[in-house]
Amino acid sequence: MTFDKALRLKLKKIKELNNKVYPVIAPEGVRPPFLVYRKSRSKLSKDLSGIINDIESTYELVLIADDYSNLDLISELLKRKLTGLLFKRLGETGPRIENLDLEELGQEYIYQPNAYKSSLLLTVNYKEE
């Protein structure tokens, strides 16, 4: 299982999102709360013998909620879920997370569609076997 697939499965387990986790863009008309994520960077590690299986990837995660208290609640659940991945293998055949950095980029109100937004930057080092 790839990291991308494993990440999506883990994020869908946040029951407050009601399975509304989308890569890159949410479908038109979807109602909050929902989460959109995208991989913004990926880098293979190498040593003197060549490329090795270590990968560093950065993901942007954007959470949209209908009110601020819901945004705050789901943000905390999301951060807990993500930081809980450190040093774990995702699924039986998924990658093992070697390092993880989570950065909050801030929260804001969006006038159209009258919602609240929280952005996170997740950088992970993992090994796909």
Automatic annotation (TrEMBL):
This is DUF3168 domain-containing protein. It comes from Clostridium lentum.
